[in-house]
Amino acid sequence: MEWKFLWAPGTFFYGSGIVRQPLSLLNMKDGLIGHWGQSGAFAFHHPETGLYFTGTVNQAIGQSAAVHRIARIIRHYKKTQSPT
């Protein structure tokens, strides 16, 4: 699949009607696969962990709050899944 890099309305890659949303500017290759709805609804999959995320921020802007929360959940999940 060919991904087109977009700066606006946020930093992400778009292709075939879905988004590849990086979780960090330092790691643009990994992240979430899914879609942002026009009013802040979202559905994403994180292939590395197998986690799925759905929800809404109930506003046309505010996706960054959802991405930050999702990134926190993924970091916590990875920490708890690491062998001790």
UniProtKB/TrEMBL annotation:
Source organism, top-level taxon: Bacteria
InterPro entries in the record: Beta-lactam/transpept-like (IPR012338)
Full protein name: Beta-lactamase-related domain-containing protein
